[in-house]
Amino acid sequence: MIRIAAVLDTEFRIVPFEQVLALPTLANWVERIYEGDAAIVGKRSLNQLSERLPKLRVLTHDASFKLGKAKTETAMEPLVTKYLSSADEAVVVGGATIFSAFLPHSAVLDLAIVNGVTGVQKFDVWNDGSFDLVDQNSLDGFETRRLFRL
Fold it and tell me: What phi, psi does 19 have (nearest 5°)?
């Protein structure tokens, strides 16, 4: 299964991880929601995630890229094939290019909508009617939404 986990501002722009991790309650939600068999992230969105996500897979065009224990992937298709055809779960954690590429293959979206921060790039293509809201909660300074593909 492929699941997208994104942190957005109230205008549905992606919030950079530096801002996310600076808010303790939100950082705790992020660590819980990103649990899975693998976390897939684009090279440009790494920042501080490599320390927090032990099963990190970095998707990049640079095959020589190395970061600690993270596994470097240069093509999306093998990841899609692997996680669509197994019980293993991949959590796609950003950034915008990676979200857009994996969205057509994602069964679940976990979103945090954060007040008082400004995101950098619009990510509202999920809001097209192809996902159904199944859970929504208000927490300290943000709202969580879980959506399943129809």
Answer: -70, -40
